[in-house]
Amino acid sequence: MTIIGATTASLLCSVEPLAAAGVAVVWLGIYFGRWTGWGLFFILLTIVLLTLSTKGKDSQSELSVKESS
């Protein structure tokens, strides 16, 4: 956990359902309907929003460390 951090680990875990859906479509030939597509879209949107929100926090913490030195 200390190598990649808790936030990065949780973001990678949220990509796992998308990878499983991709394997189901490509390998198993499963067809997803409209609602499943919306669900995949919202998962991707959540990942993007979480990534953007953590980037702002990381840069703020770096600034506070530099100012205190």
Summed up, what is this model?
The chain has two helices and no strands. It is mainly α and 69 residues long. The longest helix is centred in the C-terminal third of the chain and has 35 residues, at 34-68.
Q: What is the N-to-C order of secondary-structure elements (H for helix, E for strand)?
A: HH
Global morphology: elongated
Strand content: under 5%
The radius of gyration is 17 Å
- Share of residues in helices: over 70%
For the biggest sheet, the summary is: none
Q: Name the average pLDDT.
A: 77
Poorly predicted runs of 5 or more residues? none
Structural class by secondary-structure content: mainly alpha
Secondary structure tally, helices = 2
Could you characterize what this model shows?
- This protein has 2 helices and no strands.
- The chain has helices at residues 6-26, 34-68.
- Helix 1 packs antiparallel against helix 2 (34-68).
- The protein starts with 5 loop residues before the first helix and ends with a helix.
Q: In terms of topology, how is this protein built?
A:
Layout: H1 6-26, H2 34-68
Task: Please give a handful of descriptors for the protein shown.
mainly alpha, 2 helices
